[in-house]
Amino acid sequence: AAGTHVPAIVVGSGYGAAVSALRLGQAGVGTLVLEMGRAWTTPGPDGKVFCDMLNPDRRSMWFRDRTEAPVDGVLFLDLANRPIRRWAGVLDRVQFPGMGVYVGRGVGGGSLVNGGMAVVPDRAYFEQVFPTVDADEMYSTWFPLANRALRVNSIPEPWFEGTDHYRYARLSRTLAGRAGYGTRLLPNVYSFEHMMREERGEAPKSALGTEVLYGNNHGKFSLDKGYLAQAVGTGNVTIAPLHRVTRVTRTATGYAITARQITEDGTLVAEKQLTCDHLFLGAGSLGSTELLLRARETGDLPDLPDEVGEGWGPNGNVMAARNNNLHEPTGFKQSAIPVLAITDPVRDVIAEIAPVPAGIETYVSLYLAITRNPNRGRFTYDPAADRLDLQWTRAQAAPSVAAAKGLLDEVNAANGTTYRYDVFGGGKAFADDFCYHPLGGAVLDRVTDGHGRVRGYPNLYVTDGALVPGSLGVNPFVTITALAERNIARVLADDL
Ligand code: FAD
């Protein structure tokens, strides 16, 4: 309703947003969460909430005519991408020149679509990235809290060693070992207990049924099941899905926002004005930065810091595909949840072994490499188009490609294998033109103070991946969660 006032508004419902909503709710603060995507609770005609990767439909992507999965095809098969109806699907690819950024759309944000890998960063690297954050406190309090709240678990090693579904990962380990590289198992928020029951036929298949990227119907402890369910359970938090915040202005005592509510088909239902005392931006690196940049450039919040938009990076993401020898197949049964990574301490690469859940033998090994690329992009705002732009060039990805290629060249040399050029489109073996880990745009201690309070604007906060300056060395959501926990604890103690 127009003119409604709530004590706190949280924009978005990913990791930073969900943490803030829960802790505000527990503190007794009436909180409204506005999320542009839908609530993924009602099953479609097939009885499932999400579609799988092999049969994508309108649920797969955010208002597209065709799916845009990162793996375009394998051999002559167009395995992945299909025409679909335009709808409020769960995965978006926001396209900038030279960089496509994948993000989740829905109540739960990236937790709905991601691979669930829950990795605490190397402490020395964390200290470099966040020199002003008390690392002792992070590693003794906030990382453990995040791991517990997200229900992070580890794959039982005997099962990993025996199951057909991780043959692809064990093969990549063997090939890396021949080149002298070690591997490490990565924790996850997907329940391995559930995955083992899937294999035994005692639970419905999700990870073992080619589900990830467009959502998991079972097994994954996503934010809607954890933080957000608990937040609503406090009785103080309401979540409004299909509400996109487009504008933030100041009032005498707080902030006013404009939100556009749509149907799942994209029809505008209402444009609402809401006011609040405390405003938490948790719309992700792209979403929170866009709101701040637009507010600064249009004069709504003219005194926002110059650094808004700076410090963006794709966490050094590069994907690569190799071809295996015919006598060393990957296996046609592949769990969609990655659990193993090759480590290259010299080049500072972790190459996560990604599945190719095609249901047939492809002889392809796929890697998501996280590299420590120092290059940063920056967001700008185009007032004529009312659009966020990203200044990032393919040349800036070159150090990431070089590092990943250095590692995988050695793996190929040790095994007499080659790259695959038919996987990403454009005839390239390394995909440096998209990322899963957008970070930065409202960097901690630059745009905000040391706890996410936006400089110059009391009671306005950034809670999400926008705070992280471009690179973490590992998958980001545990860090985003832990940092949000740390920040909201201080904000609740001092500001509310
Ligand atoms: P997000 O989770 O991106 O949430 C932001 C939310 O805000 C979204 O729901 C969005 O719809 C909403 N929003 C945006 N703008 C607005 C607006 N104006 N109004 C209202 N709502 C808005 N990370 C890992 O750590 N491990 C992994 O295994 C992993 N795998 C990944 C796989 C894929 C395919 C993808 C896409 C990402 C993966 N990630 C992974 C990255 C991880 O999901 C993100 O880093 C994380 O979700 C970012 O959290 P966040 O709080 O910054 O925002």
Walk me through the structure.
The protein has 496 residues and is of the alpha/beta class. Helix content is 24%, strand content 22%. The chain has ten helices and 19 strands. Helix 1 packs parallel to helix 7, helix 1 packs parallel to helix 10 (477-495) and helix 3 (135-149) packs across helix 10. It binds flavin-adenine dinucleotide. Flavin-adenine dinucleotide (FAD) binds at residues 11-17, 34-37, 102-106, 109-110, 113-117, 213, 244-245, 282-285, 287, 291, 436-437, 464-465, 475-477, 480.
Which SSEs are present, and which pair or pack?
Layout: E1 4-11, H1 15-26, E2 31-34, E3 91-96, E4 99-104, H2 123-129, H3 135-149, H4 157-162, H5 167-178, E5 182-185, H6 192-199, H7 227-233, E6 237-240, E7 243-250, E8 255-262, E9 268-281, H8 284-297, E10 317-323, E11 340-344, E12 349-354, E13 364-371, E14 378-382, E15 387-391, H9 398-415, E16 418-419, E17 430-431, E18 434-435, E19 460-462, H10 477-495
Bound molecules: flavin-adenine dinucleotide (FAD).
Flavin-adenine dinucleotide binds at residues 11-17, 34-37, 102-106, 109-110, 113-117, 213, 244-245, 282-285, 287, 291, 436-437, 464-465, 475-477, 480.
Outline = globular
**Proportion of beta-strand residues:** 15-25%
- Tally the helices: 10
Percentage of residues in helical conformation: 10-25%
Cα-based radius of gyration, to the nearest Å: 22 Å
Structural class: alpha/beta
H/E topology pattern: EHEEEHHHHEHHEEEEHEEEEEEHEEEEH
> What are the distinct ligands in this entry?
flavin-adenine dinucleotide
Report the mean per-residue pLDDT as an integer.
96
Can you tell me the residue ranges where pLDDT is under 50 for at least 5 consecutive residues? none
Straight-line distance between termini? 25 Å
The largest sheet, given as strand count, sense and whether it forms a barrel, is: 7 strands, mixed
